[in-house]
Write a structure and sequence with these properties.
alpha/beta; Elongation Factor Tu (Ef-tu), domain 3; Rossmann fold; 3 domains; 6-stranded antiparallel sheet; 34% strand; binds FE2/S2 (inorganic) cluster; iron; iron-sulfur; 2 iron, 2 sulfur cluster binding; oxidoreductase; 2Fe-2S_ferredoxin-like_sf
Length: 316
């Protein structure tokens, strides 16, 4: 369901991060999110839907808070958000939705946020604290001078569980996965969010150290995704439409030309909006959304970026 929200407060924090509070325009109550949830926010100026993790306490009933990094390398979403999100501005919003849920049964959770990737971790830390669970939040940034959210984190009742790591400090201060990751165990869960290279490093190191993939939870904000490849055919079982997806096309775009619409938002395989059921065919997964298990099952595809070999039959 799409709802209109108003910017009720904005703080320009360090590191080019705007902290934006949103309240429903009609004064209705907030659907309470679960820790790790995000909002889908529509930016009309650039005609993009963008996903922003909630950093507010999931128990907060008056507002949602997000953090937005102004990233000159983005496709324009974050710059538009910085320009448009002034107090009183209105946005079409869907959600909250959660593709990065917390396992609240874990004995021990380790939250690892790189830069703006700390946002879902702040909500998770609040929730774990409320549950009385054991956890540590590792917050990694380039330097103290660009580290946002420190006022919130220093005042939080879980402040002593936050460990800061700055790239410009000596080696002892930096994140050292050999030292900072706990030993692998069934009840130990890791959560990582941040730049793609940072995440890949944490995930591969954790898995090499014996952490089971299902205990290493991840959320990509964006991804460098290669969209092109050999052409292939897509048959839509329900509508009877068959198209050839060209070398530089995506499934969603090729089908849209024939009037078969698949909803897309991020268009880079991270948000899950375009997930489509597959009845048969070989999938070349290019997304960062599906788990290894889901890829092996082979019965869904992200139509904004993933491809097929030969012919795919979709259940649409
Ligand atoms: S539109 Fe976001 S994963 Fe495809």
């Amino acid at each position: 369901m799409t709802q209109t929200f108003t910017v009720s407060n904005r703080v320009d924090d360090r590191g080019n991060i705007a902290r934006i509070r949103l309240t429903p325009e009609d004064g209705s109550g907030l659907p309470l999110p679960t820790a790790g949830a995000h909002l889908d926010i529509y930016l009309p100026e650039v005609d993009l839907w963008r996903q922003y993790s909630l950093c507010s306490d999931p128990a907060e009933t008056a507002f949602y808070e997000i953090g937005v990094l102004k990233d000159p390398n983005s496709r324009g979403g974050s710059e538009a958000m910085h320009r448009l999100a002034t107090p009183g501005a209105r946005f079409k919003i869907e959600g909250p939705r959660n593709h990065f849920p917390l396992d609240e049964t874990a004995d021990h959770s380790v939250l690892i946020g790189g830069g703006i990737g700390v946002t879902p971790m702040i909500a998770m830390a609040a929730r774990l604290h409320a549950l009385g669970k054991a956890f540590t939040l590792h917050y990694c940034t380039r330097s103290a001078e660009v580290t946002a959210f420190t006022d919130t984190l220093c005042a939080a009742p879980f402040a002593e569980r936050v460990v800061y790591h700055f790239d410009d400090q000596d080696a002892d201060q930096k994140l050292d996965l050999e030292r900072d990751l706990p030993p692998a165990a069934d009840g130990t869960h890791l959560y990582v969010c941040g730049p793609q290279g940072f995440m890949d490093w944490v995930i591969s190191t954790a898995e090499a150290a014996g952490h089971q993939p299902q205990n290493v939870h991840r959320e990509y904000f964006s991804a460098d995704v290669e969209l092109s490849g050999d052409s292939f055919d897509v048959e839509c079982a329900q509508s009877g439409v068959t198209v050839t997806v060209g070398a530089d096309e995506t499934i969603a775009k090729a089908l849209a030309k024939e009037g078969v619409m698949i909803e897309v938002k991020c268009e880079e395989g991270v948000c899950g909006t375009c997930m489509t059921d597959v009845l048969s065919g070989e999938i070349e997964h290019r997304d960062q959304f599906l788990t290894d298990e889901e890829r092996e099952d082979g019965d869904v595809i992200m139509a904004c970026c993933s491809r097929g070999k030969g012919k795919l039959v979709l259940d649409i």
